[in-house]
């Protein structure tokens, strides 16, 4: 048995032990794992509809999840209650918000019902507006996700995606040039900050029946929340790496957000949106290849054509001429992700 498999088995045994101490009659079944190192189990027979969350210490931060959940709850958002936890071992029993993810609801309408999509995306935007109107000064207990860290993250494209196409490592000088180009772009995109959840898309949003207002939109996977650019989560929602958002819906939701926030869809808004979109796609393209190459999660490669297409589109904005030029010089075929899909 490989060490990774032994580690997974050990964590699973620890999860069973943690649950049995809380409720010996309860049972659990593993859910599909996401891109993180966390694992979730749906619990049956417990007092409340629950999930057991496994956050391996030293890899995932259970304490930060609990902190962010409390903060968002105080803002009026619907996030999972934390019933029991052991920060040292990295296990927690949390509220199960159900299975009605926005992704599932959109799929049930076969993405053909524009009214369903508009309702759900408006709910998602309302949640962001709720945060952005209340949080001007992000508490110091949250980390920063601003130009320096975002430029580092954008370089994952050069660390993983480009070498997978060219079969050659990117030189340190080229990597430094790419990072410097992103610093120039992101310095202006980071002028207006708020609390950003960083993984805000329809897979992580759920319809909560029986709740009213903004609380109808349940939010999960928020433990990496940080102080970051105000438009970042809107970009994450509308430039989704896993699903196509129509240009009409994207524009309508941008306009709806601007209206709710009392701002305008002007050149500055467009420049910041495009800059953050390109940065995010540069990071995600690298992450998806890393998940496939390093961790064996090859299904993430299926999303590369959309991610790269979105990145190429965002790069058409004149603000992004320098990082685009570096990529084009380094690897003129970077827009063609098809070779990476052969596995």
Structure overview:
With 343 residues, the chain is an alpha+beta fold. 50% of the residues lie in helices and 11% in strands. It has twelve helices and nine strands. It has a five-stranded antiparallel β-sheet with strand order 1-2-3-5-4, sandwiched between helices. Strands 6-9 form a two-stranded antiparallel ribbon. Strands 7-8 form a two-stranded antiparallel sheet. Strand 4 and strand 5 (91-95) form a beta hairpin. The chain is globular.
- The number of strands is 9
Strand content: 5-15%
Number of helices: 12
Looking at this structure, what is the CATH superfamily of the largest domain?
Aminoglycoside phosphotransferase (APH), C-terminal lobe
Q: How many structurally independent domains?
A: 2
The oligomeric state of the chains shown is single chain
Strand arrangement, major sheet: 1-2-3-5-4
Ends distance = 24 Å
How does the overall form come out from the CA principal axes? globular
The whole-number mean of residue pLDDT values reads: 92
pLDDT < 50 runs, ≥5 residues: none
